[in-house]
Amino acid sequence: MKDKDQKKLEIAKKQYKKLANRPLAKERKKAVGTSSIYLFVVVAVILIALAIFLKQR
């Protein structure tokens, strides 16, 4: 029984590695990274604009 489980685990690991090494997965990671940076920049700009706006009042 344990041998079967071990084999299944090995196969699952190999399949996961194949999936992780697919270009699509890398592109998705890159897209997530750039979108989070973009979101951060937008939030920073809004905060700066808000600070300037409140100072002028």
Give a summary of the structure in a few sentences:
Keywords: Membrane, Transmembrane, Transmembrane helix. The chain crosses the membrane at residues 36-54. With 57 residues, this protein is mainly α.
What does it look like?
The chain has 57 residues and is mostly helical. The protein has one domain (2-56). Helices cover 95% and strands 0% of the residues. The protein contains 2 helices and no strands. It has helices at residues 2-21, 23-56. The longest helix is centred in the last third of the chain and has 34 residues, at 23-56. It is rod-shaped and about 75 Å long. The model has no long low-confidence stretch (mean pLDDT 83).
What's the arrangement of secondary structure elements?
Elements: H1 2-21, H2 23-56
Q: Profile the largest sheet.
A: none
Residues in β-strands, percent: under 5%
How much helix is in the residues? Answer: over 70%
Structural class: mainly alpha
Instruction: Tally the beta strands.
Output: 0
Shape: rod-shaped
Q: How many structural domains are formed by the residues?
A: 1
Q: Roughly how many Å apart are the termini? A: 74 Å
Mean pLDDT: 83
Count of helical regions: 2
Sketch the topology as an H/E string, one letter per element: HH
CA gyration radius, whole angstroms: 23 Å
Runs in which pLDDT lies below 50 for 5 or more consecutive residues are none
